[in-house]
Design a protein that fits this description.
Two copies of one chain form a homodimer.
Chain A lengths: L9 E3 L5 E10 H4 L9 E3 L9 H20 L8 E6 L5 H6 L7 E3 L6 H14 L5 E8 L1 H8 L15 E2 L2 E8 L6 E6 L14 H20 L8 E4 L3 H15 L7 E3 H4 L3 H4 L5 E2 L1 H17 L5 E9 L3 H5 L6 E9 L3
Parallel strand pairs in A: 2-3, 4-5, 4-6, 7-12, 10-11, 10-13
Antiparallel strand pairs in A: 1-9, 2-8, 6-8, 9-14, 13-14
Helix pairs in contact in A: 6-7
């Protein structure tokens, strides 16, 4: 078996891959959420000064990337690679945001699992000896996502109780081989899991089986249990998906939930902000990881975190053609010890 | 500098990463092209027996992947990772084709550069010690691409002389650390290059500057010149882009063109098949690499090949909003010597 492979889905880093810096940029609604003060920049203007929401999303990601580079004290040209993606058709936010920076670019599509996918590949590219530093990033925008996946905002469509609110947010991390803690120590790469759910207004239910599959593989591959982590963070399962995930582990006879946080439940105040089942979108866990979660680790609130982003692999075409919605979840371990 | 890094964009493999098997599946028009006999399977039915063109594309890729696994004599479960992507919104062909195979999956978006992007990451994941074997694949379908990016086929839109014909085709390669030649020895990862071109019917012109940027970086990083390769293959520049690429190298004072082939010019007979500037799409270079090109290497027609796939990073939304079209090109070296 390959030297760094721990099992069917997990690999461990042989050296130290740390986090040189991180930045989070969000929209105003996210800034008003319970952890809004952790974000580096909150734009009250959902257009970010641009002429369209797609250009706004591009602007937001570019700003976030530049902030992360600035905090790391590096020029973008110091990066060996940028790994990133988003939800827009043909991932234009990520491509257009990076078109001027002249860094080798790997475009990814993992739906809302993209932040963990980009971290996985960035960590492996550093640990494998292919570069010294790499950026991992992702973003989403409520307005560009709504009109692409659902209805024009002007239509004022009703939202079902299981619906989640796409976060307007971006997160960018600069990883490095000689960067400080927290270190990425393990990467568990998800398989596509299709539980047969067809309701495009219930992303939590479609993604929970994928999160369960990946987390279960992680525990099996590493010999660890949920109790070995100070915190296990899922991407954007929201209220419905988080409950489903706990139920799936309960069915396995595994105690899960006490140290579980979900970014979809953290990002908004569901009582006050009318977001139904919670937040979602690539930018949800990306912006919280780059702010609240890494700050919590650096402050030693958590010493070991399992971060599992989750994505629903649908398009409007696949749903219109009656397809069910497969999910995928990628996980990485952040550890204050190497 | 990272141990395997040769320069700003190129890395070399420290061990041998070979090609265990490859498979190509195409539509009927491609089968009638000059090299149609090299494809493993040609479907006369553009629906591949399915109810929609998107399902057809999914079917084609799945069939191609299964053929590649079969030729390698492995079950999909033997693969450490699958890397792949396509042109459809949210890359549904790749996700849906792989939803039953239960292998850790990294979804990519590199437009028509995806085949080289997937090969790059698959080779690095093996060489880095993260897995023993990985699949790299990509696909496109003329009918699903036309209706998504341009017009419904029933509309019968006129095509401009610079337009290219999206290939209905899939290519899948199984790479392995103990697989035979040809070996992937170098990976040059592209930067996003925007030459300011806005004509969505002239992909060749948008991609040529990206191909030039990546190939130039490759030569600079490795100290090689075009003459060090038996053949330099670009993805789908077509007639316009191929001429532009040669002109760009000519401006540099670099002799380029004698050993250059372009998959967009190889796949169809432009005299006979009415495809204007040539073929295009992720599946164009994917299907030719997996058949004609690797066969040519195994038969020692070429001993060293530089394979540079090229992508145009546009969406209908970006073009409707007046954006120019950035391009990207990723390159990998196949060598019969390790």
């Amino acid at each position: 078996m390959a030297e760094k492979r721990l099992g069917r889905q997990t690999v461990c880093m042989s050296g130290k891959v740390g986090v040189l810096s991180s930045a989070a940029v969000t929209g105003g609604k996210e800034g008003e959420g319970p952890f809004g003060k952790y974000f580096d920049y909150v734009s009250e203007d959902s257009y970010f000064g641009e002429a369209s929401w797609e250009k706004a999303e591009t602007h937001m990601l570019k700003q976030c990337f530049e902030l992360a580079c600035g905090k790391a004290g590096i020029a973008p040209s110091a990066l060996g690679y940028i790994f990133g993606g988003d939800l827009l058709n043909q991932c234009i936010a990520s491509s257009f945001a990076m078109r001027d920076c002249k860094v080798p670019f790997f475009g990814l599509y993992g739906a809302c699992s993209t932040m963990a996918e980009s971290l996985s590949l960035a960590a492996m590219s550093i640990d494998g000896g292919y570069c010294d530093m790499a950026a991992a990033q992702s973003c989403s925008h409520f307005c560009s996502a709504e009109r692409q996946f659902r209805f024009p905002l002007e239509y004022g469509g009703q939202r079902t109780p299981t619906a989640q609110w796409t976060v307007t947010g971006a997160g960018s991390l600069i990883l490095g081989g000689s960067a400080p803690a927290p270190y990425i120590t393990h990467v568990t790469t998800g398989r596509i899991v299709d539980a047969g759910i067809c309701d495009a207004n219930n992303m939590g239910a479609t993604m929970a089986p994928a999160a369960h599959d990946t987390l279960r593989a992680h525990f099996e591959d590493t010999g660890r249990s949920p109790a070995d982590y100070d915190v296990i963070v899922t991407g954007d399962l929201g209220a419905v998906g988080s409950e489903a995930l706990c139920a799936l582990f309960s069915r396995d006879g595994v105690k899960f939930g006490e140290n579980h946080l979900d970014c979809g439940l953290l990002v908004f105040d569901r009582e006050r902000q009318d977001v139904h089942a919670g937040g979602s979108g690539c930018g949800c866990c990306a912006s919280l990881l780059a702010s609240l979660l890494l700050t919590g680790m650096r402050e030693r609130k958590w010493k070991r975190m399992l971060f599992a982003a989750t994505g629903a692999l649908l398009s409007t075409t696949s749903s219109q053609q009656g397809e069910s919605i497969p999910g995928i979840s990628h996980a990485v371990v952040f550890d204050m010890e190497g």
